[in-house]
Structure formats: structure tokens, C-alpha cells
């Protein structure tokens, strides 16, 4: 540990906290070991690790001087620990991915060359002289040994780290098998024996590195949402001084009660209340709605929202660390940690691997000595046991299916972003939809069918003087005439003179209508009766068919929307979704999903906005449209391309099929071991045959995974009146 960690500790009263990046943690067992080990330390209130980002958050009572002690404690468990710096962590992920790819490429190169030499030895048989065979063996050794040392480093380093901590992991028997196979092969070559097993060692390394590369790449993609939310945070703010001046200060130095100036186009730095001025805010971060929100003196504003109108002055009600944007970032981070706790089937099955394999290999070695076998025979059989029980088939059971399923989904416009997303998606029982931009197109459309064309021309001409989305929906109907004396009443509407007529456009009260409950845009020309212009966000053309197919698959559905109750209920009625909740904020969506989960439902959240990110992160599985915000895509397991929901039923079908293939693969891997292990123990299998058998088991698992390519689109009946595709194979 070369870095003093005390300077990275954050103090909050009597409590201290620290974020560390952990090296060597690869599975749910590692995560549990780290969290439980630290929680046993006196004064530790919280120890929570995100396995995807390797980030560990510790909270304790006391001073910063305990930080180095926690790091030493982690090192004693067999893990490395250093300060968590987001940019450094991201760079470390990139470097690790490059190292694994290079190691895999080198192993593949060496394996191909050694196999060519081995085939020459096998095909030569009795016709090959001892000198020629010895030369080929030495050439194999010259290729295999340095390549095994280079490409096997990920396993050797992990195994050595575990052994130094007086513990074991799956890399210990793997490393032992590689070293014994290489060592025995070198011994055989030195003594002029017929068989060597350099090819077996390299094949073992290459196949295991395939799984390691896939796992590393999938993990590296899961930590983006929190970093992108951090990018939305304002780093500096304009603070008013006591003498009336303005100073630029870091956002972290803003205190409660500070007055801040926010110019047009700037983001609100912290949560506050407007003290002077009125404006319009892009509050999609809070509400998920594209329409600008009118605000004036006394209205609350939230960090991350954008001032799209006149300059305003706000009073800080929260510090940066407690602001709305920080809350969303922490909710996303917590949701990703919850997802990381999902223990994959492969991890569960592999827990018993190390002690069983070590014991079995040792018993094989001792048993052969006891029955009179030579040390060479005992070692050969023990190595065969280590190799033949190598968890290649077990390790490929999940990744092989994932690769084929992900490719199948990609061809249909569905992108998978999380390693275990398919497994979680296969268990989904309930789907929660956001409304605006998800079930609807997110583009406002006015219904002008009942408005007199002459009146519509006047109203639309006035509307051209506003950039409000509702007004913009009327722009195509405007006449080419001039508007005079245009007056905009902030937050209420427009008033102007057109061809001698006084035209008003805006809220019901502004135009003089008593019907304040009717949703939509109101207009009045002179003293005529006020005109209601229904404005709505149109349904996506594929939404009804998607909902129908999902229901046919036995799923229950609901809608959570930040929009008005009448609008949300109307969308639910059109789609046949009865469970509709309106006017919800991000925390409300989170609470609703938690309630559904408490009832025993496995929940899929489908959304597109920044305000959906916490719910997306906390749901059992999540999906976002490619047209949605970048943060919502990063917080999701599934991204639906082509700005359409049509791929969602297909994704559920593929996920369910993938789960069946994974279970079949585990069955094949277990059956293989039940058959092959006794043969190795009783000496019927050489290390080379063991490597071939191990490869064959991996091949069988892979071929079974390739059956995923036959999975077609959902073959259920289309929604009446729709024709969105038939089953394909």
C-alpha cells in the first residue's frame, strides 16, 4: 500500500467515509467476504461494494487515521485496495481489458503452433525417429513455456495473492494444473518420453481466458451511469457577496442561505428557491416532461435543471452533496450495487470447485502410490484430474449462451448492456412503463379538427411567437400575417393583435375560461367563447401491439408517469393497462417499484428520461429506448434500438430461452464430470486426453448455446388491427 488514504477520507460530524477501488474481487463470494470482514471491525457502520465497478464504500465512527488499517485488512483477505478515483478506475478497466485480450491472443498463437507440432508427433508414430520427436518436443517447449508464463499471468497473480492471504480461489487449482502440465511435459521432454502435454496447458489457458475477457468487458460497461450523472453537476457557481458583488466559487463551497446568480442557459448548481426574476426551466431531469416549466419568485428549483429563460437569483436550500442531482446519482449507484449482488448460477456451482478438486487430485495421487503405482503415474493421473475437472464447460455455460443470445438480439435491434441481464429478464413477472417518450412519442400534437379554419389561422399565427412545445404544435397552421403588440405573460400565455382581432392563447384562467380542469391549450378571439385545443402526446404506433404480446406472455403491466392524471389514465385506457399512477417524481417511482418487489414481483422498468434512472437501476431488470437520455441508457440493462418498443417481447422470449440453455449447459457440464472424473482417477485418461475431453465438454456446451440462433420472434397473435411481424426462425 503505497498511498496514504487519510487524505481521501470525507468527514461528516463524528462519521468518516472512504471510497476504495478493490482488486481481485471476481464473484459474489468475494463480495460477501469483503463486506462481512469489514463490518466485523469495531465502529464500522457500513461496508458496501459494487462488484461491477470494484468500488467499496466504507462508513465508520472515528478519525481518518483508520483508513490505512482498512486497506491492510483487505490485503490480508487477499485483495488490493487503493483510493477510488473515477477517471483512474475507468482507465484501469481499459488497461485490464487490453491485457486480457493480449494474453488471449498470445495464447491462441502459441496453441496453434504447438498443436501443429503435436499433430506431427501423433501422425509420425513408429516411423518417427527419437531424435526428430525430441526436437519437436523441445520446439513445443520453447513456444509453450514463455507463452504459458505470459498468458497465464492473470491466473498466477490471482492464485498467488490468494495463497499469500492463506486462502484459495478458483485460480489456485487452475494455476496448479497449468504448472504441473508444463513441468511434467518438460520432465518428459528431458527424459525422451513419447508424450508431452504443452498443448493441453495452452488449451487450458486459452479457453479460460475467453471467459475472463467476456466477463471483464461486460462488467466494464455497468459503471457509466453514475459517472455521466456526475458530469451534469455544476463545478462552479456565481455567488453574491455581502457588498453586492459577485464571486465565482466551487459548488462544494456553497453553504445554506447563499444567494446565487443563474444566467440563461446555465444549470442550477444546488437545490434552492427563486428570490428574484422569473424564467422557464428545462426540468426533464425532475419531471421527465419535455415541456419547459415556468417558475417565478418563491418557486423551488433543483440542481441539474437548466435555465432556458431570463436570469434568476436563487437562495441555496441544500449543499451540493445533498442536492437533487446527488440524490439521483446515489440512487443509481445503490441500484447497480444491488444488481451486482445477484449471484450467477456459475458462481454458485463453482463455490465447491476448489476444495473438491484439490481433495480429489490429492487422493488420486496418494491412492496410486498406495496401490503400488510409480510417482510418475500418480502425478500423471493427478494432473489429469486437475485438467479434466477444469471448469471450462462450467465457465462457458453462461457466457456462451450470452454471446449467442446477445448477437441474436442485436440482429433484432436490442442491445444488452449487463452480463446477467438476460438471466434476470427471464424471471420478470411485472413490467413498469414510463409514459412520455416511452409509450408515447414524446412529441406534442394538437387536435384542431373542431376549430374553425379562420380562427385556427389567427390562433396559430400568435402561437408562432412562442417556443413552448404546445404552441409549437400549432405552428404549421399559421397564416402569413403580421402580429402586433405581442405580450407574453410568463407562465400564463400570449396576447397579441392580428388583423384587428385581439387573440389570447395559454392557460384557461389567462384567456378567461372557467373550466380550469380541462387539460389542453386554451384560446380566445376578441369576446368570443373560449376555445379548448386538446393537446396530447401521441401513442407510439407499436405500443398497443407490444402491450398485447407482453400480456399474452403472462406478464402484468403498469404505468408510472410524471404527467397529469387525466393524460396518464387516457393512455392506460387506450393500451388496456389498468394500473396507472400519475404525477410521480423519481423517488415515487423508486418506492412503487420497491413495493411491487415486496409483493414478490420481479420487475422490469422501461423508461427513457434522466428522472427514470434511479428506477431503472433499482428494478430487477431495466430497458431504455435508444432515443432516450444517455444516462437512462447507461442505467439500463437493455437498449431498444430504432426508437421502437417492438423488440421488448422478443427480448423477453430470448431471455427465457437463454435461461433454459444455461440450465441445460449446467446439466451437460455436471454429466461430463460424473463420467470423466472416475476415468481420470482410475488412470484411464492421460493429461492430453483430459485436455481434449475438457475441450470437448466446452464444445458441447457451446454447440448447445448455438441453438439460441433458432429462437424466433414471439409467435403469439398480433393485437387486433396491427400487423407487426410474424414468427421468424
Automatic annotation (TrEMBL):
Belongs to the cation transport ATPase (P-type) (TC 3.A.3) family. Type IB subfamily. Its main location: membrane. It holds the Pfam family E1-E2_ATPase. Coiled coil: none annotated. It is found in: Cell membrane. InterPro entries: ATPase_P-typ_cyto_dom_N, ATPase_P-typ_P_site, ATPase_P-typ_TM_dom_sf, ATPase_P-typ_transduc_dom_A_sf, ATPase_P-type_domA, HAD-like_sf, HAD_sf, HMA_dom. Keywords: ATP-binding, Cell membrane, Ion transport, Magnesium, Membrane, Metal-binding, Nucleotide-binding, Phosphoprotein, Translocase, Transmembrane, Transmembrane helix, Transport. This is Copper-translocating P-type ATPase. PROSITE patterns: ATPASE_E1_E2, HMA_2. It is a multi-pass membrane protein. Gene3D superfamilies: 3.30.70.100, Calcium-transporting ATPase, cytoplasmic domain N, Calcium-transporting ATPase, cytoplasmic transduction domain A, HAD superfamily/HAD-like.
